[in-house]
Amino acid sequence: MTKDYYKILEVDYDASDEDIRLSYRKLALQWHPDKHKDDSSVTAKFQDINEAYRVLSDPTKRLEYDLSGDYEIDKYSLPEYLARFKGMILTCNGLGINHSSLWSYNQHLKEANECEDGKV
Prior knowledge:
- The protein is mainly alpha-helical and 120 residues long.
- The chain is built from 6 helices and no strands.
- Helix 2 packs antiparallel against helix 3 (40-56).
- The chain is elongated, with a radius of gyration of 18 Å.
- The protein starts with a helix and ends with a helix.
- Residues 99-103 have low confidence and may be disordered.
């Protein structure tokens, strides 16, 4: 079973490099084995956090992970599943396309509702 590095680092699937770095630092400090003496589960969690950061902080490894990720629908809630694909498709990972210029679903829905109401 593959690990969901985004869940391990507690970030969204389309998280920026800065969001990933900040979350990693927070979690690494929180789960550092020196703060939890003689607890092997903490050591394992700390190792998972480091592994997730090594992959998600490297653009090439992150793209490979995103493209070969585990997408079993029963492992994710619908919002998580859609966010995972949004991160792959709408942000065009690895292509250098800035996702801020793309419409969000909410913006599109708002414009559609305004059009129906005759505001546009």
